[in-house]
Amino acid sequence: MAKLSTAEILDRFDSRIVKALKRDDLTDLFINEDQIFIKTHRSQESIGDVIGSLRFVINEIAYHNDTIINETNPILETVFSGYRITATIPPVTAKPTMSIRKPNHSIIPLTAYVERNQLSQAHYDYLIKAILDRKNILVIGGTGSGKTTLTNALIDALATHSRDNQRIVILEDIDELVCAMPNKVKFLTSTNVNMTRLLKLAMRSN
Fold first, then answer.
1. Which end of the chain has less neighbouring CB within 10 Å, N or C?
2. Along the 206 residues of the chain, how does pLDDT read in single tens digits?
């Protein structure tokens, strides 16, 4: 069975979904059992009832990414066309569902947090010192709280203030972080390679 191309699979989505994914302010799209919701930076709203066969699209995305979704493996977590996809089928849910997270690759400099009064000058100075001293920094928060955006700002600050050409190794489940450092490598998890294995790989190759 030949795989459909990315464009062909996207064409199988409801046209309202395709249109929503093109919105610059979109962060998430939720295809629930009966209704479709979109989430932006400012609001969350329904764009109507689910129409068409979502199960067919889920199957094609799974096949495109060389994985399987069925009754014994009813959850799909993957990346497709740059989007983070989480899909379910029965018996986990009564009907097929899908959550689509749109990545944000734009970089907001750490200085912008200070200008917007989201970060004090003292905290900014503390973070820059921690970066230069190679301290551990934990970025913790709920879904959609801005963890990736802040982490990208910290990486950008590292690239701006770094005094040497140190090698940066990034480990991710989803390709979201942006690094301008020239000496860098990014490792991504897959169906057969988990984060623990990537950590061991990073320690051996750095």
1. N
2. 788 899 999 888 989 999 999 998 899 999 999 999 999 988 999 999 998 889 999 999 999 988 899 999 999 998 898 898 999 999 999 999 999 998 877 789 999 999 999 999 999 999 999 999 999 999 999 877 889 899 999 999 999 887 777 889 999 988 889 998 889 999 998 778 899 999 999 998 87
Tell me the two tokens of residue 150.
């802040």
Q: Is 31 within 8 Å of 17 (Cβ atoms)?
A: yes
Distance between first and last Cα of the chain: 41
Nearest alpha-carbon partner for 177 in 193, 159, 162, 196 = 159
Which amino acid, residue 130?
Answer: A
How far apart, in whole angstroms, are the C-alpha atoms of residue 100 and residue 105? 16
Comparing C-alpha atoms, which of 158, 17, 145, 144 is closest to residue 81?
17
Determine whether 98 is exposed, middle or buried from the number of CB atoms within 10 Å of its CB (0-12, 13-18, 19+). buried
